[in-house]
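Pasting as-is:
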Amino acid sequence: MVVDKIALALTIVGALNWGSIGLFGFDFVAFLFGGQLGTISRVIYTLVGLAGLWCITMFFRDEAVVEGHDHA
């Protein structure tokens, strides 16, 4: 599902950003997009948060769908 892939990509971006904050004290999103309170940074943080919430739904799905093939 396309939404799943987008959500996963955004979640990975967020995880890498948090990893860089934890390891190096460096926020890539803030650096690239005008600080933590910059409009673009806040939009990215919001999208990453929403993607994380979407990824929670993956735990509760009944069936796995792999490249358009349903496994029943």
